[in-house]
Predict the 3D structure of the following.
Amino acid sequence: MDKEDNYISIRNKILDWYNENKRDYPWRKSKNLYQILITEILLQKTIALNVSNMYNDFFAKYKGFADIFKADINQLQSDIEILGLSNKRAKILKDLSAMVLTEYNGEIPRDPEILKKINGIADYVSNAFLCFGLDKRTFFVDVNIKRLVSRAFEPSNSKVKIDVINENLDRLLPKTGCKHMYWAILDFGNKICSKKSPKCELCPISENCLYYQNL
Ligand code: SF4
């Protein structure tokens, strides 16, 4: 199998696995851009289950940027306390809401560079928003994505740089519908290619994976 065929094979196998094993999170069904962007901020540096547990209550109370903008910051911090880093997270939500309402007439800017002007919003959140909310083919990397890509394609490189991860992602992602591939990689990295004790014996891409082939 040549290199490109290997990427296609891995893509198809992970998507097949995902269709049978996907995690059912409420934000994956949302088409509301406000909810999609806020959720990516809530998901930073916490476990998805925490966000899932407070998702419905949070968005029932904070229906739009105006609700966050006018909220008492102490109350907002209290409402997201379960996620950790509530002071920092509440400030990001407040700053973002102020920017969207006062500078962009309530419309979320589509340019990631503008979103990144908010202290605390970096590449991951801005590019994940474009992908999950607007179906753009963007690159963003968390620990699950990095671990899977590093093991499957770059096992001999102990410090894989972000450019190398992105090059591999560029080959791995489909031309359209990237959000499904990202959700698949996130779930696959969580359940199969886990940090400790990856389940290589159960892994559908073991015959494609350089880490496993070199064990
Ligand atoms: Fe991860 Fe093992 Fe699968 Fe490779 S074979 S992707 S290391 S679980």
Notes: The longest helix spans residues 3-21. The CA atoms of residues 7 and 187 lie 18 Å apart.
